[in-house]
Amino acid sequence: QLRLVESGGGLVQPGGSLRLSCGAPGFTLPYSIGWFRRAPGKERVGVVCIGDSDKSTYSLDSVKGRFTISMDNDRSQMYLQMDSLKLEDTGVYYCTTARRPNVSGEEYCSGKVAAYWGQGTQVTVSS
Predict the structure, then answer these.
(1) Is the dihedral of CA 64, 89, 101, 76 positive or negative?
(2) pLDDT tens-digit profile of 14-26?
(3) Cβ distance 100 to 114 under 8 Å?
């Protein structure tokens, strides 16, 4: 059973950076990948995703130009580089990978595609 393990969360001041990492020991991640966020008191939403069907990247408008998703060449690890962090970026961040192929980035970030999920890592942006 594939199990995603995240790391890299923590406390950072506004304007700072964090890099989240995620992998599944012993597995590669062949299909769509993404990072979701659950902010305090809000529903979980897709923040940035890469679809395997067309290699498209979908990002929330609020993180465009600040957050970057990437993956190792061997598809064993995925990352979320977060720069210029804002107070509203606070939340629990989850890495995910799809259970099936042929999904676009936007579709994957809708949260409606069956996926494997990490346990979540807390990111707190505070002065």
Answers:
(1) positive
(2) 999 999 999 999 9
(3) yes
